[in-house]
Specification:
The chain has helices at 2-20, 71-74, 124-135, 172-176, 187-193, 195-198, 244-252, 264-271, 302-310, 314-321, 352-362, 382-394, 431-435, 440-443, 451-462, 466-483, and strands at residues 43-44, 48-53, 82-84, 90-92, 95-102, 105-110, 150-157, 160-165, 208-213, 217-222, 235-240, 258-259, 276-291, 370-375, 400-405, 415-421, 486-499, 502-504, 521-524. By secondary structure, the chain is an alpha+beta fold. It contains 16 helices and 19 strands. The protein is 28% helix and 22% strand. A 10-stranded mixed sheet has the order 9-10-11-2-12-17-13-16-14-15, with helices on both faces. Mean pLDDT is 91; it is low at 1-43. The chain is globular, with a radius of gyration of 24 Å.
């Protein structure tokens, strides 16, 4: 009763505020389910856009590492050489043109008159510096693994570079076109201030520059020297609200215009509030668990890992925790893979009887506690999913419990929650990148890839024969689902709360970006 009265009070406050007008931009038309306005009103000026986020990046250096928290901010501040547009085509961003000289040599011509946020010109020196930094081992590995076939970058002239690959790579343009890849940063500024200072005062070539940084708020301002079309909003404020209820309250009371990670339990509250809507999209991200296979405990037993894998009722998790956009994939793959999406791959079965048999065969004594570790609240519905999975494992005689940690760590003994974003539309951009050579599970000692897994990845990289690539994609998933260095749960969704008066194109949101460039968002009157 107290909760209902509290919500009723907040709704009345929002209605009162709405009657007084909005402080950022006004509208008399509500967004449609895709985030766009249903009205035909003329554009209104959008001064300050306030965004409530569930989590902030651990670093603002886009070359150190990229995660689901940082990608939302980075997209608006930095540019890559190539880019994947809304139709899925590779196009130039900082690159004006590119040409393959042979199977392992790519020339790239930069756009002229591009400047960084401090006014300095962006040249080939900066591009080479960015890639050399990554190739020399800088960062947490989430970016360097993307360029596994890149050997070196040479400067031809001020605006031309030559990329040398160690072997032919049919997916190299996709790698360069990934938003999860190398954002170009300034050589002189970064060298002058140092890596640590750059991580809190970053400079890019994107449409927004950072003007204020604190643990609770990032303020971005439109960069007038941007080489492309100017975005609508003059200023963006990213404000941290780790607690879901606090984000919803901030949206209802007008403190922010958009919030991310609206939980299914709060969806109706937002939707039923006058002037607010929930919009959503499926995302190219599969929530997964990583298994520790290398330590002296029961998780090193393949049969036990298989038992854990098939004891999870994934469809139940989707039906109870998510809404319209989340799905149970048939294998660790995405439908956006085109010809490399294997529709007939069977995926993981749910079989409690077989799971119980495998537990018995594994020698599990019934006393060892299997810990599922992760940061509380970091993954949408992750807390609830973990608790439900502990109950599911209990049905096969396995003791399991959730253990929260302050930050993500690869020091775990049993199971760790993670997510697998598709860096580009190819099995190499997700399953291989997350569990292949150079990946964190490998370098952190969680598992050693099998010969079959390595051979399948090698074929995907080097073969141009579609049938061979499809067979390799199948083998990659088959080995993953059999050896079980981890398991997938579901392909997730993102739900946003948004106020009336904003027309927002969610196309890029499937990549977990929050896009606020030109053409992405505008105010309506």
């Amino acid at each position: 009763m107290k909760k209902k009265k509290w919500l009723a009070f907040l709704i009345s406050v929002v209605m009162l505020l709405s009657s007084c007008g909005s402080t950022s931009a006004s509208s008399q038309s509500a967004p449609a389910s895709d985030g766009s306005s249903t009205g035909t009103a003329e554009p209104a000026q959008l001064d300050t856009l306030k965004i409530g986020l569930a989590a902030f990046p651990t670093t603002l250096d886009p070359n150190y590492g990229i995660g689901i928290a940082s990608i939302k901010v980075f997209y608006n501040m930095f540019d890559t050489l190539l880019f994947t547009d809304k139709e899925g085509n590779i196009t130039g961003q900082l690159a004006e043109s590119w040409e393959w000289l042979d199977d392992t040599t790519l020339n790239i011509k930069l756009r002229p008159n591009v400047t960084f946020h401090n006014g300095e010109a962006c040249t080939a020196e900066d591009v080479k510096f960015t890639f050399d930094r990554i190739l020399n081992g800088y960062g947490d590995g989430t970016i360097s693994v993307l360029y596994e076939t890149l050997e070196s970058v040479d400067i031809i002239d001020d605006l031309t570079l030559q990329f040398h690959l160690s072997s032919p790579d049919a997916a190299f343009e996709d790698r360069l076109g990934s938003i999860w890849g190398a954002s170009i940063i300034p050589k002189d500024y970064t060298t002058e201030v140092g890596d640590e200072a750059f991580a809190t005062a970053p400079i890019g070539t994107g449409p927004y520059k950072m003007v204020s940084y604190s643990p609770e708020k990032y303020v971005l301002e439109r960069y007038d020297g941007f080489w492309g079309e100017a975005p609508e909003a003059r200023e963006i404020q990213f404000i941290l609200y780790p607690e879901p209820s606090a984000r919803v309250t901030a949206l209802m009371t007008g403190e922010v215009d958009i919030i991310n990670d609206v939980g299914t339990d709060m969806r109706d509250t937002v939707d039923q509030t006058p002037g607010l809507n929930v919009v959503g999209t499926g995302i190219k991200n599969i929530h997964i668990y990583v298994f520790q296979t290398q330590k002296d405990n029961i998780m090193s037993n393949e049969k036990f890992r298989q038992a854990v894998t098939i004891a999870i009722n994934r469809q139940m998790l989707v039906d109870s925790l998510w809404t319209d956009y989340a799905t149970v994939p048939n294998g660790h793959q995405f439908t956006s893979y085109g010809d490399l999406y294997l529709e007939d791959y069977p995926g993981i079965e749910y079989d409690l009887e077989k799971a119980r048999q495998l537990v018995q065969e594994s020698g599990y004594d019934g006393n060892e506690v299997i810990k599922i570790q992760f940061k509380q609240g970091y993954y949408t519905n992750g807390d609830q999913a973990a608790q439900a999975i502990c109950s599911m494992l209990g049905e096969i005689g396995v003791k399991a419990q959730v253990e929260y940690e302050d930050s993500f760590s690869w020091e775990f003994d049993y199971i760790h929650a993670w997510s697998s974003a598709s860096r580009f539309d190819n099995p190499l951009g997700a399953l291989w990148l997350l569990f292949g050579p150079g990946s964190n599970p490998v370098t952190q000692g969680c598992w050693t890839p099998t010969e079959e897994f390595l051979a399948a990845g090698d074929t995907l990289i080097h073969s141009s024969d579609l049938q061979q690539q499809q067979q390799a994609a199948w083998k990659l998933m088959e080995v993953f689902d059999t050896y079980c260095p981890g398991t997938y749960l579901y392909q997730a969704e993102d739900l946003y709360g948004i106020r009336d008066g904003l027309q927002w194109d969610l196309t890029y949101c499937e990549n977990q970006i929050m896009p606020f460039r030109a053409g992405d968002i505008r105010a309506t009157s």
